[in-house]
Every structure is written in C-alpha cells, then in structure tokens.
Amino acid sequence: MRILAENPLLKKKCKLVTIDQGRLIARRMVAYLLANNKKNKTHKALGIAANQFGIDAAVAVVLIKQKPLILINPKIKKFSEIKFLHKEGCLSFPNEVLDVYRHFWIEVESDNFNNTLFFGNHVDQNSLADMLESAVVQHEIAHLNGLTFHDFQWTTSLNPSEW
Fold it and tell me: Which phi and psi (to 5°) does residue 78 adopt?
C-alpha cells in the first residue's frame, strides 16, 4: 500500500523501532519496491520510507547498485556543505518531478549497522552514480523526519542537523 500526498503520516516524524521490528517492516517494503519496479519499467523507484508505506516507523529501504539496503532508525551525522541540484520524483507524489537541492555526500548512522555508512563522493563531485545514491538516501531519511522533496527546492533548505 502506497501513501499519497494528502496523508498526514507523510508530515510526521516516524517512531524509532527495534532492529527486529525494522527488519519485519523492511521485508514487506523490499517486496513492494521490487514488485513496483518490475511492473513499472519507465519510472523505477530507488527507495521507500515506512511512512510512505503506511507505517509509523523509522525504517527506509534504498536500492544501492540495484540491491536493497535497509536502514533502521537512520540519522545523517555529517554532510557536505556543497549541494547539487537535480530532478527528483517521489512515490507519494506520482505526477511530480521537482528540482531539488541535496548534499554531495552524507554519513549515516543506522541501528542495524555497526559502522557509519557513507553515500556520495568526497573527491569526485561529478560522479553521477554517487550523487544519486546520496540523494536517494537523503530523500528517504527526510521522509522519516516528516519532510518531503518539496522542502528541498531551495539552496537555503534545512540541513540534516536541523531535522
């Protein structure tokens, strides 16, 4: 079940969950994401947050190199000062594509990983694949904090430390 724009759950900060709860929730989300992408050849989704799936839980799934990565209670700890502008879509706003500002790189802590996860590229800020991965993770973590891609249309948009 996909939650669309008018649902108030999209504007609410999601509840923290245990790793076991997060894995159970994520299993259903991964199945939905993969089925959606198999069915929809032109507009593939690169991630989904639990609140987009109708669940108040801080769980996100992102596709990294076409493989699902589960993030349970993720938090962006560090981020580049420099942002880039790119076109972004969203499963909850199916007919919209917006110009959105995202950080080139981010460092993320997630309860289901012992180490900090890095997305983006410190060195090559022209690496489109790395930039896209960073943007997707930012997009889904923003959802878990009650923010949508509409909140990132300006260079002065909130930084993760303000979420």
Answer: -140, 155
> What 3-state class would DSSP assign to 156?
coil
Q: Nearest to residue 119, comparing CAs of 99, 100, 139, 146?
A: 139
pLDDT, one tens digit for every residue, the chain (163 residues): 566 667 889 999 999 999 999 999 999 999 999 998 888 777 788 999 999 989 999 999 999 988 999 999 999 999 999 999 999 999 999 889 999 999 999 999 999 999 999 999 876 656 777 889 999 999 999 999 999 999 999 878 888 988 8
Annotation marks residue 107 as catalytic: no
Strand order in the sheet with 117-119: 75-79, 106-109, 117-119
SS3 95: strand
| Max Cα distance, the chain (Å) | 40
Q: Which of 107, 133, 140, 162 is the catalytic position?
A: 140
Helix (H, G, I), strand (E, B) or coil at 63: strand
Strand residues in the chain grouped as ranges (E): 47-49, 59-64, 67-72, 75-79, 83-90, 93-103, 106-109, 117-119
